[in-house]
Design a protein that fits this description.
Elements: E1 8-13, E2 16-21, H1 32-47, E3 52-57, E4 61-63, H2 79-99, E5 104-108, E6 111-113, H3 115-121, E7 125-129, E8 133-135, H4 149-157, H5 159-168, E9 171-173, H6 174-179, E10 185-187, H7 192-204, H8 208-221, H9 226-240, H10 244-255
Parallel strand pairs: 2-3, 3-5, 4-6, 5-7, 6-8, 7-10
Antiparallel strand pairs: 1-2, 8-9
Helix pairs in contact: 1-2, 4-5, 8-9
Length: about 260
């Protein structure tokens, strides 16, 4: 069944899924309707034979986080509404991005603020235009970074930088975010689309099952001991060593040709 989207653009072609947040007049900030459409799109990724997902924003911004005009906040009474929105919308979104069994690329084309910044950080690779920036805007509203912000920031940038970003809410330019290890790469604005497309094509032809296990091992390994992680690596290698892609990779190596992976 074809889904009609009003707040996002979504398509899957040649193994590449593209999800564009499409509320440019609001810097692609989230409202309730957009959350529902993004959930539907991410569910469709799993059943559409996609082997990589690109997430980006329309217009001059990636995502400005929550659209505050979509949420009525009574003086002194906003907290329950915020908690409900996080539980129903942002928490499952971040977990879904992390748990997709394929690479997820965030193409950050402009400002990524609040939850928008942390949704980008939830992706596996973040490529940002030089003019883009990341802002933990929560401090300006008397809130705590959500959508995984308090988890991602210290792990990616270290505690000292995480504190500065979270407590001050200052704009972090994309080039500095890359130098701090917060994102994978900063590129010139005109190069963002070509670089991301090249990565997507590479992933669409890659051994997807192996990449999925790699991402799972790295993310879940953050909470394991070395001994436990060595056991996981052993188990995953045993599983992947029986896959069609491994057999194809070995055959292609022996025949000195480019492998034709199917993701199985």
């Amino acid at each position: 069944m074809q889904v009609s989207y009003q707040n996002i653009l979504f398509d899957v072609s040649s193994g590449i899924a593209r999800l564009t947040l499409n509320r440019p007049e609001r810097l692609n900030s989230f409202n309730t309707a957009m959350h529902a459409e993004v959930r539907a799109a991410l569910a469709a990724v799993k059943s559409a034979a996609a082997r990589v997902l690109i997430i980006t924003g329309a217009g001059r911004g990636f995502c400005a986080g929550q659209d505050l005009s979509d949420r009525a906040v009574a003086p002194g009474g906003g907290a329950p509404d915020l908690a409900d929105s996080i539980e129903k919308n942002y928490k499952p979104l971040v977990l879904a991005l992390r748990e997709l069994p394929l690479p997820v690329i965030a193409a950050v084309n402009g400002v990524a603020a609040g939850a928008g910044a942390n949704i980008a950080l939830a992706c596996d690779l973040v490529v940002a235009a030089r003019s883009a920036s990341f802002v933990q805007a929560f401090a300006k509203l008397g809130l705590v970074p959500d959508s995984g912000g308090t988890w991602f920031l210290p792990r990616l940038a270290g505690t000292a930088r995480a504190m500065g970003l979270a407590l001050l809410g200052e704009k972090l330019p994309a080039e500095q975010a890359a130098s701090w290890g917060l994102i994978w790469r900063c590129v010139e604005d005109a190069e963002l689309a070509p670089v991301v497309d090249s990565l997507a094509l590479q992933f669409a032809a890659a051994p997807t099952r192996g990449l999925a296990r790699t991402k799972q091992a790295i993310y879940e390994g953050l909470n394991r001991t070395l001994r436990e992680q060595l056991d996981i690596e052993r188990d995953y290698q045993g599983e992947l060593g029986r896959s069609a892609d491994y057999a194809e990779g070995v055959a292609a190596f022996g025949e000195k040709r480019t492998p034709r992976f199917t993701g199985r």
